[in-house]
């Protein structure tokens, strides 16, 4: 049986107390949650339940249509906004982006999408053509929150589609990304571990060149990560992943034990005269 959604092994006791009571919606606890997000970034811990509680402390907005197609190439959907989102003066853009970046480090879980659903709709709206052209090369840390969220959504889309090489090229291709992930300690290492975990669930052998692109590593750094961190074997141009319950191919035999007595009622009804 899996762990409950609100479980976090490293959650401090005072945070647990707040989450279990009505104080989770008390605006005075906002700074406590913000400090907790900063601690997660520094200590490489993660608490989705607490982060979602903080995102609910955003200003209310009406139900409007938000074009998600710019993020995920899907049809537009209606984004519901919780009635508990309030206190705009307490919102910090840096904390919001840190929560989104931390949610990327636990893909393929849906945490990033959950966080997006609690943001204000206007933040998710695509930038206008004029704004995009004027900020084509924004100064680091000078972009609006909307642009930062959309850029992180691009990274999430690459991860969801298993385009890991595109994820790394996008991350390294814009200086704004370096600023967005700067507060999350060892972000690249965390992403490599998650990518390796997903790969280990799907394959037992993978080409070295392909895996180097997925992990954005080469040479001795690649061999150290694959051999020491992952425990995989490197043989020439092929990397072998140890057998596990996820990547092991097993035939499934389905046996159905259906007795004739179970069909007696069906057969009897076939011979009944209609009323």
Explain what this protein looks like in three dimensions.
By secondary structure, the protein is mainly alpha-helical. The protein is built from 15 helices and five strands. The chain has helices at residues 13-19, 30-43, 48-55, 69-72, 93-104, 111-117, 121-124, 129-134, 145-160, 164-172, 175-180, 187-202, 208-215, 219-229, 264-270, and strands at 64-66, 77-79, 205-207, 233-235, 238-240. The strands form two sheets. A three-stranded antiparallel β-sheet has the order 3-5-4. Strands 1-2 form a two-stranded antiparallel sheet. Strand 4 (233-235) and strand 5 (238-240) form a beta hairpin. Helix 2 packs antiparallel against helix 3. The protein is extended, with a radius of gyration of 24 Å. It starts with 12 loop residues before the first helix and ends in a 5-residue tail after the last helix. The model is unreliable at 59-84 and 129-143 (pLDDT under 50).
What attributes does this structure have?
about 280 residues, mainly alpha, 15 helices, 5 strands, about 5% strand
Topology:
Blueprint: H1 13-19, H2 30-43, H3 48-55, E1 64-66, H4 69-72, E2 77-79, H5 93-104, H6 111-117, H7 121-124, H8 129-134, H9 145-160, H10 164-172, H11 175-180, H12 187-202, E3 205-207, H13 208-215, H14 219-229, E4 233-235, E5 238-240, H15 264-270
Antiparallel strand pairs: 1-2, 3-5, 4-5
